[in-house]
């Protein structure tokens, strides 16, 4: 599944099953600890990819010297693979090139001549309740204590809230939250499940009382004896705002956090903003979703907040593999499509992305994207295209910003718990990717006895647990980290 997953499924037998497979993997693999020469690289990598347990697996691998484009190892590097979150490398590279490291999203509130207030969101994925409180304080400082009508203008980002190719299980999980003009709290809401006495359903504790009113909850959970495994499943009905809670919660459990995507981002924003205004003693009448009346003669911006700069947003995308941030950043590229559009769509943004990458030297036939996050199974990228992107960014003025956004092996992000106590620790900066049947890792390595490398490894069509595939990928990367120059 994607890097950021919701707390919906927790089944103890999964842990047991994975534990058994990890023991099997340890028996079948060994992490090399000796330096290797470039001439040994093919034999070393082939020994991993040709193992019997990978006999039906597709491997795509490309390893090059950084800067020279000299290929040290290649296996089906020009062929298409489902890249998972390695897609984010292309999205963030294009965004950094086109928008610049200091680009910020702006969320504005305008006052029209009719005294209505208009919220104009521009797809800021970092907006939280804290920024709503700032906006409310700004309005209070302008002497606004009463709002007749507050309108959310949602024209900026158009098209489907979620890509049509995302799977059903994804769009009902927090990592598949909708992308919209106004994004608040990453367009998710949360509640806790608390155990009660034996046999009774888990108690629901909402973090937002207003959100509780939006749902009809069918609670079929049960509290079981202490030290029993937690197994909670929360689903949304196909139609209507219905939540169904099933499974069991142990009597001695800590609060069980459930995070889900909101159904309507605009009205979720309006509900939360009403609370922020009330805290400043600003009364609010009607709320609606409509069009900012920019044809009025007297229009003034009365409040605004800015996102952190793009350089910081990229860290959230690449280190934590945040899908919503990636999709919002992708759509921001649409403003670079001449003539300047009034609307940002994913299709327009993908055109800008392709044009940008082509200018950087990335072959446009090496990939076919339908989203910016990699959550879609319809994305196709070759290891060659990923390496071309990494090579281009290493030679760009934004090289240090781009590198800083990537996880560091054994240190942070999605690589924090990988490569610890190995020769690859701290010298690998790479983007992870995980979908069912698709595992990827692409980035940079700086072997101390050889020199900097760029690599891409993608595994598709695997029925092996992700933990076993990752172990094999990591074994290859550790070998690369020990590369040395030989006579």
Automatic annotation (TrEMBL):
<dbReference type="InterPro" id="IPR012338">
    <property type="entry name" value="Beta-lactam/transpept-like"/>
</dbReference>
<dbReference type="InterPro" id="IPR000667">
    <property type="entry name" value="Peptidase_S13"/>
</dbReference>
<protein>
    <submittedName>
        <fullName>D-alanyl-D-alanine carboxypeptidase/D-alanyl-D-alanine-endopeptidase</fullName>
    </submittedName>
</protein>
<dbReference type="GO" id="GO:0000270">
    <property type="term" value="P:peptidoglycan metabolic process"/>
</dbReference>
<keyword id="KW-0378">Hydrolase</keyword>
<comment type="similarity">
    <text>Belongs to the peptidase S13 family.</text>
</comment>
<keyword id="KW-0645">Protease</keyword>
<keyword id="KW-0121">Carboxypeptidase</keyword>
<dbReference type="GO" id="GO:0004185">
    <property type="term" value="F:serine-type carboxypeptidase activity"/>
</dbReference>
<dbReference type="GO" id="GO:0006508">
    <property type="term" value="P:proteolysis"/>
</dbReference>
<dbReference type="Pfam" id="PF02113">
    <property type="entry name" value="Peptidase_S13"/>
</dbReference>
């Amino acid at each position: 599944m994607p890097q950021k997953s919701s707390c919906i499924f927790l089944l103890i037998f999964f842990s047991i099953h994975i534990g058994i497979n990890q023991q099997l993997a340890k028996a079948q693999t060994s992490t090399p600890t000796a330096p290797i020469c470039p001439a040994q690289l093919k034999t070393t990598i082939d020994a991993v990819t040709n193992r019997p347990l990978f006999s039906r697996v597709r491997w795509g691998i490309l390893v090059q010297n950084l800067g020279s484009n000299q290929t040290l190892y290649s296996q089906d590097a020009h062929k298409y693979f489902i890249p998972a979150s390695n897609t984010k490398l292309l999205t963030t590279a294009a965004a950094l090139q086109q928008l610049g490291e200091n680009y910020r999203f702006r969320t504005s509130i305008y006052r029209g001549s009719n005294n209505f207030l208009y919220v104009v969101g521009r797809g800021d994925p970092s907006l939280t309740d804290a920024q709503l409180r700032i906006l409310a304080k700004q309005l209070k400082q302008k002497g606004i204590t009463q709002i007749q009508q507050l309108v959310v203008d949602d024209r900026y980002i158009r098209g489907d809230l979620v890509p049509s190719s995302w799977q059903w299980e994804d769009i009902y999980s927090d990592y598949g939250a909708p992308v919209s003009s106004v994004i608040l709290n990453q367009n998710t809401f949360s509640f806790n499940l608390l155990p009660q006495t034996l046999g009774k359903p888990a108690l629901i504790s909402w973090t937002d009382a207003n959100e509780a009113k939006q749902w009809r909850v069918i609670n079929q959970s049960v509290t079981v004896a202490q030290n029993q495994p937690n197994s909670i499943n929360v689903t949304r009905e196909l139609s209507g705002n219905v939540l169904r809670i099933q499974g069991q919660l142990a009597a001695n459990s800590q609060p069980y956090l459930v995070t889900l995507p909101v159904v309507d981002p605009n009205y979720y924003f309006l509900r939360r903003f009403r609370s922020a205004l009330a805290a400043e003693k600003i009364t609010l009448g009607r709320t609606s979703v409509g069009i900012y009346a920019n044809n009025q003669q007297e229009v003034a911006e009365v409040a605004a907040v800015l996102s952190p700069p793009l350089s910081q947003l990229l860290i959230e995308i690449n280190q934590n593999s945040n899908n919503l941030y990636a999709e919002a950043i992708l759509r921001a590229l649409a403003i670079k499509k001449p003539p300047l559009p009034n609307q940002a769509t994913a299709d327009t943004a993908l055109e800008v992305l392709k044009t940008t990458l082509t200018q950087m030297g990335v072959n446009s036939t090496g990939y076919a994207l339908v989203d910016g996050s990699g959550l879609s199974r319809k994305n196709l990228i070759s290891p060659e295209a990923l390496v071309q992107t990494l090579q281009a960014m290493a030679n760009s003025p934004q090289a240090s910003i781009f590198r800083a956004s990537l996880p560091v092996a054994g240190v942070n992000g999605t690589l924090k718990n990988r490569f610890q106590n190995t020769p690859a620790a701290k010298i690998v900066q790479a983007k992870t990717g995980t979908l069912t049947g698709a595992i990827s890792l692409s980035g940079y390595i700086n072997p101390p006895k050889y020199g900097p490398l760029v690599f891409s490894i993608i595994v598709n069509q695997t029925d092996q647990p992700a933990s076993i595939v990752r172990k094999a990928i990591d074994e290859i990367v550790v070998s690369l980290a020990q590369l040395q120059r030989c006579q």
